Amino acid sequence: MKSLVDSMPIITCAGKNTVGKVATEITSKGYCSTKNMYYFGLKLHAVAFRRKGTIPFPEMLILSAADENDSTVFKRECVGNLNNREIYADKIYSDIPFYKETKESQKLELFTPVKAIKGESPEITKREKAARDLFSTAVSKVRQPIESLFNWLNEKTNIQRAMKVRSTSGLLLHTMGKIAIALITLIFN
């Protein structure tokens, strides 16, 4: 079994110097490196089954505040429920000591693009560059469908734009309602 892991922002207001005033008990300020933007809102984390030739099917969907680290949320909320599988994720999820333990106890194997190693000599970096680039490209190709899942979800429901929401219950209704609609569409189409 192969699972794909990633997150996407749900934006209640955007901008570097803006202060969010909606649902402040569950939202916070975060940064989305993919979109290169600061925003106030939530993050939608997904763990999805990889299906060749089509978008992945969500296994777990989790909401967190925008300032929470993706890896921390994944370790806290998801890892305990996953066994006997390969997981493909971003560089942010690479925590080698943690996953060495889970590899043995839960038979989880994590694949992420290779992160630069601090303090590594330039000679070793140059020598290993080709192998690391090939491995990172292979991992990125396997995990690319989760980006397609988020794109499909946003196209069908416009879930990322929660700027007209004015309360905590409104934000939760906006998010959960759109996820429900998308999952029903995914199941019956």
Automatic annotation (TrEMBL):
Residue span, Transposase IS4-like domain: 5-168
Q: Which Pfam families match?
A: DDE_Tnp_1
> One biological process GO term for this chain?
DNA transposition
Output the Gene Ontology terms for molecular function.
DNA binding; transposase activity
Q: Which InterPro entries match?
A: Transposase_11
Q: What is this protein called?
A: Transposase
Q: Which organism is it from?
A: Bacteroides faecis
Instruction: List the top taxonomic levels of the source.
Output: Bacteria, Pseudomonadati, Bacteroidota, Bacteroidia, Bacteroidales
